[in-house]
Amino acid sequence: MTVSPHRSLNGSKGFIRSRDLRFCSEEEMVEELSSVTHAWRIKVRRVEDKIQTDTVVLTFDSPKPPSKMRAEYLTLDVRPYVRSRCVAISANAMTTARTGVRNLLLYVLNAARVVISNGTVRLIPIA
Asked: Does the keyword Nucleotidyltransferase feature in the UniProt annotation (predicted)?
């Protein structure tokens, strides 16, 4: 029998921001930074293009991410990464079925803010 730690339950995620790491690949970050098992860069979509940002999400092999990291000459602040849970619902789909209205009420009860624009209802839940 082999005992090994669970990859996702014993890990944590944090993010760093630095313009100096813009041209550094994700593979290089995993190799050079200690206790980092996975790295991916947040991308923003502008019209048809995906633009890479200065923000990198890191997965650590410890239950709590470190508060600071050293990368060569840089000292980087590591902040905990919490995924945004935003829900978008089509207004036309809600008005055609009773279940849509019932589901909308359930979402609104748990939402902190409701944004309606261009026929789309956007609900942002309480964190």
From this structure: yes
Q: Which of 85, 69, 81 is nearest to 11 (CA)?
A: 81
E-strand spans in the chain? 12-17, 36-46, 49-60, 68-71, 74-77, 79-80, 87-90, 111-117, 120-125
70 lies in the same domain as 97: no
Domain extent for 40:
12-80
Burial environment of residue 55 by CB neighbours within 10 A (0 to 12, 13 to 18, 19 or more): middle
Q: What's the pTM?
A: 0.61
Q: What is the pLDDT of residues 59-87, one digit of tens each?
A: 998 888 899 998 888 899 999 888 765 55
